[in-house]
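Progress against Task 2.4 (sequence-to-structure conversion) is shown through the following example record, which the project officer requested during the mid-term review.
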Amino acid sequence: DELDAKFYPIGFLKGEFVFQNIKIRDVLLNLKNDVQEGNNFDFVLDALKTDNPSKNKDIFYQIKAIRLYNCNVKYTSNKKPPLEPGNLDVNNLDIEGLNVRLSLNHFTNDSLALQLFNLNFKEKSGFEVKNISAMVEANQKDLNISDFNIQLPNTDLKTSSLYFEYGELKNLDNFMDRVLFKIEILPSKVCLGDFTVFVPSFA
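Structure tokens generated for the chain above:
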């Protein structure tokens, strides 16, 4: 396991922990969400925010960029019952070989702007991502993803724009009925077999 962090040392004297870049290698991350107790990773989300993220008024901490190398991530949530094996269950993820570079331009309680580079991993369901890159801007009403590119074993999908309008976050739980979306697809190659974890009939 390895952690490499670049920070501003003078800020430590003022109680300010601003990390310019954090690199994490070969680490197992166990993330949990409980409907009643909340998340065990809230402190990380707080650190990523750009508007004085710390809840403690005496300490300020912030992370501007993160790189993960060959990490394993497990995420469990009790929001919904587990799905049958072979399906991609977003509430029970088990990811291996995660690599990603994440650059945060803006992150507050109600908005987000980031750049995603070289995201790749394999999930226990068999879903494998060779590469994802994108620019993301989101708030409590809509989400815009530009320059999106996803590469799967037999798929190379590119879009100039992905736009989702949901009005309020709770509508995402009823995506098909409450969310309006517009997708501008560039010339791409799509293999339905890469998406069987979402739609088994594609097999």
